[in-house]
What does this fold into?
Amino acid sequence: MDDTGWMILMGIGGAVLWLVIHQRYRRWKAGKLADKMLEDVIKGKDAFRR
It folds into this structure.
């Protein structure tokens, strides 16, 4: 395989890796936000009852 093939493979691999990391980060961030909202609801400080 020549250099161009390796460059294409590296580009695709990097994009896939970035997508996986980005998705995991977003899921983790959403989980933290949901935990905080749940804590606020338990304490009675939720924004929905105002």
Remarks:
- Residues 18-43 form one domain.
- The two ends are 64 Å apart (CA to CA).
